[in-house]
Amino acid sequence: MLWDACTALEAGESVRFERILTTLVRLPGAAEALHRRLVAEIRDVWGRGWQPAELVRVARRHLGGAHVEVLKDLVATQRTQYATATVAEAWDAQLDAVGARVWWQPAEDYWSVSAARAGLDEAMVHRMAVEVLHRVSSLPDVGVIAAIPGEGRRGSLAPRMVDQSADLRMRDKVRALLSKAESTEFVEEAESLTAKAQELMARYSIDYALLAATTDARDRPVAIRVGLDNPYEEAKATLLQRVAEVNSCRAAWTKEFGFTTLVGYAADLASVEMLYTSLLVQATTAMMSHRGDRRSRTPSFRRSFLFAFAQRIGERLQAATDHAGQAVDAEAKGALVPVMAAKRASVDAAAAAILGETDRRMIGPTNQLGWVSGRTAADLARLSAHVPVSG
């Protein structure tokens, strides 16, 4: 009967759904069956590649806030079925980030305490639960990119990782540069700091690739997903794609679910996330500086501004990366070209396996003033790549 209710929702048959739901909640043991089915469905959706942050994001986009709370509670319940040693730290970090935790006592009936907490009657909570079940069960396979609960390992059982101390030192330096870029009131200084951060990341990535080519390094490309929220999702996806490509990663935007999948080496992916987040802050600040002009308040202006910023900043970041590459290639006496070609081939192969055939088309700008203003904001950067890179 649960699936009958979901089918009615899918078909938009509201009268039939109400009739099924009324019958369902009166059946003995219906609440327990609904709870078991939901927890099992969440386990299944992990096997289709979804992760906690993505699942909660989809619920926020398509359901109400109360639905999201029910979903987080069920995700937390599902987590209790596994020993901690079989759940990766990154997975639990996502649960913490979305606020999924078991807040009720084991002896309590979840549905009744949940209804009381939300100030709703149990029938309404059951309705929301069925609607959550419908949404979760309809999610497609998006590809598993991380160890799911029961298959992860942590602590002494985790796979031996390469030494990450150099990664952490580099990230600390980059984070400090980007923090200064975000806080300064001077656009040229912000862009100069961003250029320095990009050169530092590029130099580190190149040095690592050269080292890996002469050692028994076992590092392989991996994938992560970055959530993108409205407004102007497509422009943000374009900015993220530009930053990814400059840093030897591949990106595919899934508009329907609000995330971009990135494929690359772990250190490069961490760099992309940091730089994208900072550039989004900088772009937004620059865009809002035009708010005195009535024309700049329109959605088309802001959308076009972000598209132009993404394109131009990508060009300037590429120039900074090329400058770092030329310097290293001179030091390596021409050894860099084949190494970087092999790295690109490795990432491309991983991206093809993980992403499949992706459509890289992006929606273009619709406001000429916004486009010109966005490129101007990026041009003010002086991303000349002549800032010395230390460390």
Written description of the protein model:
This protein is mainly alpha-helical and 391 residues long. The chain folds into 2 domains: 2-154, no CATH class; 161-379, no CATH class. Helices cover 64% and strands 4% of the residues. It is built from 15 helices and 3 strands. The protein has helices spanning 2-11, 14-26, 30-47, 52-62, 65-79, 89-98, 110-118, 122-137, 165-183, 187-213, 233-246, 266-288, 299-331, 336-355, 368-379; strands spanning 222-227, 250-254, 259-264. The protein has a 3-stranded antiparallel sheet with strand order 1-3-2, with helices on both faces. Helix 1 (2-11) crosses helix 8, helix 5 (65-79) packs across helix 8 and helix 11 runs parallel beside helix 13. The longest helix has 33 residues, at 299-331. It is globular. The model is unreliable at 358-372 and 381-391 (pLDDT under 50).
Which structural class fits the helix and strand makeup?
A: mainly alpha
Compute the gyration radius: what is it? 24 Å
How many β-strand stretches?
Answer: 3
Strand content: under 5%
Number of domains: 2
Q: Helicity level, as a percent range?
A: 55-70%
Q: What would you say about this model in short?
A:
The protein is mainly alpha-helical and 391 residues long. The protein has helices spanning 2-11, 14-26, 30-47, 52-62, 65-79, 89-98, 110-118, 122-137, 165-183, 187-213, 233-246, 266-288, 299-331, 336-355, 368-379; strands spanning 222-227, 250-254, 259-264.
